[in-house]
Structure formats: structure tokens, C-alpha cells
Amino acid sequence: MSISARWFALPEPAHSAHTSNNSSTPVVVVGAGLAGAHCAYELAQRNIKVLLIDAGQSIANGASGNDAGIVKPYVTRDPSHINQFYQSAFNFLLHRFEQYPALAQAAQFNQCGVLQLVEHAYPTNANYESCTAADASKLAGINLTSHAIHFANAGWLNPASLCNALLVHKNIDVQLGVNVKNVEKINSRWCLSIVNINATTGSQRATEQLECDTLILANGEQLNRFSQTSDLALTAARGQTNRFAVPGKQKLKKVINGKHYVIPTQNSVVVGASFIRDDETKQLTDADHDHNVQGALSLVPELSFTQIATSGFCATRATTLDRLPIVGPVPDFARYRSDYALIKNGLPQERFPLPSYHRGLYAIGGFGSRGIVSAPYCANLLVDYLHPSPLQEASEMGSDDSHLSQWSSLLHPARFVIRELKRATN
Ligand SMILES: Cc1cc2nc3c(=O)[nH]c(=O)nc-3n(C[C@H](O)[C@H](O)[C@H](O)COP(=O)(O)OP(=O)(O)OC[C@H]3O[C@@H](n4cnc5c(N)ncnc54)[C@H](O)[C@@H]3O)c2cc1C
User: Fold this and answer.
1) Does ligand 1 lie within 6 Å of residue 127's CB atom?
2) How far apart, in whole angstroms, are the C-alpha atoms of residue 87 and residue 127?
3) Residue 34 in contact with ligand 1 by CB distance below 6 A
4) Same domain as 200, residue 148
């Protein structure tokens, strides 16, 4: 994708390419889920100190707390930028796991292959193979009734274990039970009002202040709860997975994906996931359990499993309208609304000012149901933008490969406001 419109131009990052992190304070990352853990890891690998804080008492306290989720690129039938984005994200994750096999192992990454069931046959391409129901059944080891596309190098992993593994790093300090109430710019620095929550009693200590120059908000469904981020268009969607025991030998060899998914492990299957928009409740429900049972049977009618779950997981995803994540510097939304109010008139781009941002404040989230694949790549895009490595700068001379600005029109935090302004009537 090429560099996009003026209103998506990215500012020079607060810590520019050549300064590394000279500041005495570490970069603060809020949220110890996949987004925050990958950001912290990417920064730490570039020798930048990170303080990662999370309101929960454990790492992966939110949507990333699942113990099995699918790793596969999202695809549309026809070529699209969205396909390109998810394929790049998938390739990035595979590459990271090749570079750091200990991470893949800690995440229990299992490249058993994924069969995505489709109504109509897809043409085979470089990323997947198109299968008839008979071919798919052979691959799966069990009878399937639809056409499928086979992602041979896809599979599943344990997101919670991956987050834990990413955060074991000498440059990362993790502080749990720290709830960020609000953030404010004071004397050119970011000042976080934080409350420590006691792990045993749940009681809260008096509000304290924490200061930093660079602040990355990666706090999942709560990403738009700060005054600077309240215009980020996010909707909560509750989801539940269940694990069911498999009597006898496991026959299923592939992850099966359609409206639901079934992940085979040695003695069980993990089935997910329900998707209930505008629901932030996090208790397991019988209704979602039964929905998962039905979902598994509709995908794999001959699957044999005890239809009472042995365990379950439930959390809230942060979803966006276009099902793409939000990654980048946090826009000054009030300025966006005034500076681009006339965008609907179709004036030439040069007539508009360059966009305004909250300097030093970044957002990453809105991963919906695809964060396992997309969060690592997005974290790398964001961190490369903040602290480009000499290697990356050299490669940028020749191409725009893997730069955040390359994906601006898909991922920019202000894209929904721009779309709204374009649609506005006088
Ligand atoms: C049931 C279910 C099944 C899923 N299955 C898959 C799958 O198979 N494949 C796939 O790719 N994706 C899947 N997903 C989606 C994926 O898990 C998410 O996209 C991803 O985990 C989001 O990561 P995150 O870091 O943005 O958010 P989270 O993991 O929710 O992390 C946000 C963190 O921020 C912390 N926090 C929030 N507010 C504050 C605050 N004010 N102060 C301090 N800390 C704060 C929270 O405690 C939390 O730990 C699934 C999601 C669910 C719920």
C-alpha cells in the first residue's frame, strides 16, 4: 500500500530515530495483553527500558487470557489491502517464531494447519490451497461436508503463555495491580494517575502519579476510556470459549474454522467463540456453552466430545467497525474536527493543515477476534516507527515495506472521524 492522505500523515515521533531512549524514564506501556506485551518486547529488544503496568493481578488479564486461539491470516475471496495486511501480519509472526524458537515453544505454537470451511470454492493461491470436502476430510482425519481452504503453516497457540514469555526480559519491568485512572500532559510530560490494587484484599491505595515522555496505551476494551482517546470508535464484544474432553484417541488433525472454530489438542478440543456485541459481562454462561457445542457440531458433525465442558474462558474484545486494528500516535480529535471540517467539500488536500497529535502518546488496540495474528505485527510497526533501527532505515531507502505509514489508511486512529467528516452534510 502507498502513503495515504494528508490527514493520515504521521508526525516525527517524540523519540526520533537517532536519539534512542536517552530519557531517564522508561517508556510506559499500559496493558499486559498481546498488544502491550508485544510492544514491550519489541522495545526491549531494541535496548529500550519499559515499564509495563496492568490493572489485573496477572499478565494477560483480559482478552489475551485464553489458553488456545487460532493463528491464521484472515482472507477475503478477492485480493484486497486487508488480505495483504493480515498476510504480512501472519508472515511476521512466523518469522518472529523462527528467529526466537523459545517464544514459539513457550506459546505452545502448534503448526498443525487450519482448514477454513467455505461455501464456495476459493481459487488456490500462494498462501492457501483450495480443497474439496473429500480432500479436506482426508486432511482433517474426520468427515467434513464443505469446501475448505487449507493454510498448511497455520495452527494455534496459547496467548496467555505467549504474553508471559514475552515479558521475561531484562529491559522490562512489569507492575501488576496498577490501574490507570487518567492521563494528562503536564510540563511536556505524560502524567498518569494510578491506583495500586492490593492482590489479596482488592483494596485500593491513594492515587499516585507516574510520569513519562512516551506512553503507549494498549489497554484493550478500555482503550477509549481516557479523555484523549474517547473518540476512538471501539465496541466491546463478549466472547466465550470452552474446552471439551475427547474420549479415546483424538481423530481431528487440523484446526477447523468457519463461523466457529475447533482446536484439537491431545485429549480435548477447544471450541470458540461466541461473539456478543455491546456486552461487557465476563461470566461464563450456559447459553454460550451450548452455542459452542452447536457451533462445533455444525463445523464437524462427526466430532466426538463430551458435551459438558471441562473448562471455559470468557472476556471482552475491543472491536472496530471495519474489523481492523487501531495503531499510531493519538490524534488531537478536537483539532481534527475543526481542521478537516470542510473535507466533505472535496477541496485539494494541500488546502488542509497537517494533522495534530498528542505528542508522545500512542494507541494500539481494536484487535477484535484477530489479535493473536495482528497484534505482534502492529506492535512491531509502532515500535519501528518510534525507534527505527539503522537496518530498517536503510531498507526504507529502497522500499516502503513494513512501515506504519504504509498502512495508514487502514490502521490510523483518526480514520473513523475522517470518514464521519467526509459523510457530514452542511
Ligand atoms: C473468547 C475469545 C476468543 C478469541 N480467539 C481468538 C483466536 O482464536 N484468534 C485470534 O487471533 N484472536 C482471538 N481472540 C482475540 C484476541 O484474544 C484479542 O484480539 C487480543 O487478546 C487483544 O489483546 P489486547 O492486548 O489488545 O487486549 P487485552 O488482552 O484485553 O489486554 C488489555 C489489558 O489492559 C489492561 N487494562 C485495561 N484498562 C486498564 C487500565 N486503566 N489500567 C491498567 N491496565 C488496564 C487489562 O487488565 C488487560 O490485561 C479471542 C478473544 C476472545 C475474547
Assistant:
1) no
2) 8
3) yes
4) no
Ligand 1 center to residue 155 CA distance, Å?
19
| CA–CA gap between residue 328 and residue 47 (Å, rounded) | 21
pTM: 0.95
**Residue owning the nearest CA to atom 10 of ligand 1:** 370
Number of the ligand 1 atom closest to the C-alpha atom of 315: 53
Pocket test of ligand 1: the residue of 67, 222, 364 to mutate, having most ligand atoms within 8 Å of its CB, is 222
Question: What is the SS3 assignment for 14?
Answer: coil
Please report the atom of ligand 1 found closest to the CA of residue 59.
49
Cell 482433517 appears where?
Answer: 140
The three grid cell numbers given for residue 347, joined into one nine-digit string: 477541496
Based on the structure, what is the number of domains in the chain?
2
According to the model, what pLDDT value does residue 18 have? 42
Instruction: State pLDDT tens for residues 2-50.
Output: 557 999 999 988 764 444 444 568 999 999 999 999 999 999 999 999 9
What letters, b where the CB count within 10 A reaches 16 and e where it falls short, cover 145-157?
ebbbbbbeebbbb
What distance in angstroms lies between residue 99's CA and the mean position of ligand 1's atoms?
25
Of the residues 316, 343, 365, which one is the last residue of a structural domain? 316
* pLDDT surpassing 70 at residue 171: yes
Q: What is the span of the domain harbouring residue 338? A: 6-63+163-233+322-419
Instruction: State in Å: Cα 60 to ligand 1 middle.
Output: 7
CATH value at residue 180: 3.50.50.60
Q: Does 366 sit in the ligand 1 pocket, CB within 6 Å? A: no
Dump pLDDT digits (tens) for 50-108.
999 999 999 999 999 999 999 999 998 888 899 999 999 999 999 999 999 999 999 99
CATH of the domain at 241: 3.30.9.10
The label of the residue with cell 482488592 reads 202
Radius of gyration of the chain (CA): 22
- Is 63's C-beta closer than 6 angstroms to any atom of ligand 1? yes
Among 283, 316, 349, where does a domain finish?
Answer: 316
- Tens of pLDDT, residue by residue over 339-382, are 999 999 988 999 999 999 999 999 999 999 999 999 999 999 99
CA nearest 375: which of 50, 215, 157? 157
